[in-house]
From TrEMBL:
It comes from the Bacteria. Residues 39-156 form the Pyridoxamine 5'-phosphate oxidase N-terminal domain. PANTHER family: FAD-BINDING, PUTATIVE (AFU_ORTHOLOGUE AFUA_6G07600)-RELATED. This is Pyridoxamine 5'-phosphate oxidase family protein. It comes from Streptomyces chrestomyceticus. SUPFAM superfamilies: FMN-binding split barrel. Gene3D superfamilies: Electron Transport, Fmn-binding Protein, Chain A (2.30.110.10). It holds the Pfam family PNPOx_N.
Length: 209
């Protein structure tokens, strides 16, 4: 008997709204078009964000970005700058931004249940006056991503509460996973042992800053 693969039923927006209802007007009104003093404080304490981009065809990507708290600089109430630190040089986010400037950011502060969402239009820059503000250990990034903010708002903490993200006990979940070296060895194949991949990763991590 041949098994025919079927996909779950697709819902229209009207069907979605029939199931979840409409948002309270107050929640819609919380969205602002700039970085106010509360968002500025949050960004100044955030060591991590997720950067969502899409290419010209709409193919989406989401990239983690992290550094010292406040590594994202608020240039003014409508402009942010994100340092582009050394990485794998694939540059998916930069390529997408050049093709399609629309981006979404999600800022996290350890221990804080609420998150900050920022949407806008982005472009890469090598402006020295911007890069020098991102210097760490006497090193400035070669590039930065400038975001022209169109929307900013705080998101409630339900997701982080459900996930128990900041519960120390949750860190035990990592012990149940294979190491990065084991994953790389299985995916890339060949005769390279997991320990060799681990050594390469550790060497790259020591060059972070």
């Amino acid at each position: 008997m041949t098994h025919v693969r079927t996909r779950p039923r697709r819902l229209s927006l009207a069907e979605v709204r029939a199931l979840i209802g409409e948002p309270e007007p107050m929640l819609e009104n919380k969205k602002i078009d700039h970085i106010d003093r509360f968002a500025r404080m949050f960004i100044a304490h955030a060591p991590f964000l997720s950067l969502a981009t899409a290419d010209a065809a709409g193919r989406a990507d989401c990239s983690p970005r992290g550094d010292y708290p406040g590594f994202v600089k608020v240039l003014d109430e409508n402009l942010l700058a994100i340092p582009d630190r050394p990485g794998n040089r694939i540059a998916d986010s930069l390529r997408n931004i050049v093709e399609n400037p629309e981006v979404g950011l999600l800022f996290l502060v350890p221990g804080m249940r609420e998150t900050l969402r920022v949407n806008g239009r982005a472009y890469p820059t090598d402006e020295p006056d911007v890069l020098v503000r991102m210097r760490t250990e006497a090193k400035a990034p070669a590039l930065a991503i400038v975001v022209e903010v169109t929307e900013a708002y705080f998101h409630c903490g339900r997701a982080l509460l459900r996930s128990r993200m900041w519960d120390p006990a949750s860190q035990a979940l990592a012990d149940e996973l294979p190491t990065a070296g084991e994953i790389a060895a299985a995916q890339f194949g060949g005769d390279i042992a997991p320990e060799q991949f681990e050594a390469v990763l550790e060497a790259s991590y020591r060059k972070l800053f």
